What we know:
Blueprint: E1 6-14, E2 22-28, H1 31-40, E3 43-50, E4 59-60, H2 75-78, H3 84-87, H4 89-92, H5 105-120, H6 125-134, H7 139-153, H8 158-162, H9 171-183, H10 186-243, H11 249-263, H12 265-284, H13 286-298, H14 302-324, H15 328-338, H16 342-356, H17 361-367, H18 373-385, H19 388-445
Antiparallel strand pairs: 1-2, 1-3, 3-4
Helix pairs in contact: 5-6, 5-10, 6-7, 9-10, 9-14, 10-11, 10-14, 10-19, 11-19, 13-14, 14-15, 14-19, 15-16, 17-18, 18-19
Amino acid sequence: MSDHLQEYKCRVRPRGAPEKIATITVKAENLEEAVSKLLRDGSVVISVGELTTGFGKVPAFFGLALLKKPTGTGAQAARFKVPKRALSAGARKKKRLQLFPQVGSRELISFAVQLSALLQAGVPLLRSFDIIVRGTQNSYFQSILESCIQSLSGGFSLSSAISSYPKVFPPVWLNLIKVGEKTGTLPDVLREIAHYQEAAQRVKSKVISAFFYPSILILFATCAVGFLLLKIIPQFEEIFRGLKIELPVITQVVLFASHIIRHYFIGVVLVVVLLISAFLLAIRKPAGRFLFDLIRLKSPIMGTLILEVSIVRFTRGLSALVRAGAPILEALDISARLAANAVVEKVLMETQEAVRGGHGLGAHIESSNLFPVFMTQLISIGEETGELGQFLNMIANYYEERIDTFLARLTTLMEPLLLIFVGSIIGVLVVSMMLPIIEISTSAHG
């Protein structure tokens, strides 16, 4: 039996140590048996190749990143094989040019769901990536996943592979995946990531949808007013100049505005652009960003909405991290940044230091007088009962419903108010032009 054994040159590494890659020789009857032996030893197989055959050296590539130590042989071990041709199938796919390459939330959610399902079904990580790559339509995302495949083939972990793309994979992804790799629960963690991403996208979509119609209406009003000031009012100005009459104050103001827009249009545009640029530069600096976020939080009506959106983002992220088993201090650091508000983030970072010093999470958050008592008390109860993740998720669901109701009412209220506002502006312009004509007509009849 031993006379028929073939020698295979294998590159392997211990699980959890991507930098310790070793080359060893394994004797087996065939390729599948060689791989099976390595898997039973608990090694992560990077590549396997025959040392000698009748036709010289014939390489056979395997790329693996395992969740659990496989115990099967023969046909079961063959499940872990990733053919080179399959790995390069995505790379051969024709790329489509993208003007602004980006990866949307929907694509990230789909990726997390698919990867979780494949891993849960027992498909190796590298093979799972190849399957997802071949079904990805976004060429930019496809190239990122192919780069991850190369990293995984080199023996690196999934968290190491995605860490090279912080603009694509949010920090919460990286930390959750690290937890999943340490605990061997990567499929469950990926499902948690998908749920978190879906919830975050849902809140974002609701806010955007609520302000979409008002934005369109304001844009339409701006275009209409601009057209009147540039094209219609100058014709009335010529008529009034010929009549040589004293114009009402409101008419003079409108004519002056039209004159400025027509003769100094480029200057007006430059001033607006400079003001916007100065504002954007100011809020990029920590002090400017903090002041702007503080003003937003203190603003009537909208301040409540902004705070509740931050609460949902923070509690949803913290819940996902805590339930996945991430250390509380690390989870607080990540979820604080998810709040997307400098004032809220500062309070939560101070809370992290307080928790590090042994204080309770809920008690310290409540002492800041920024967050609602309902939220802080539920966090305290979650700490006391040991079910913090569940209570955080409850808080996120509650405030998400509040946001939904608030936005629905706000949209209903804003529509008639904006219509009245836009109608008033256009009405003022029209009336200002009609007043002198009415006065002339009245005086002529008198």
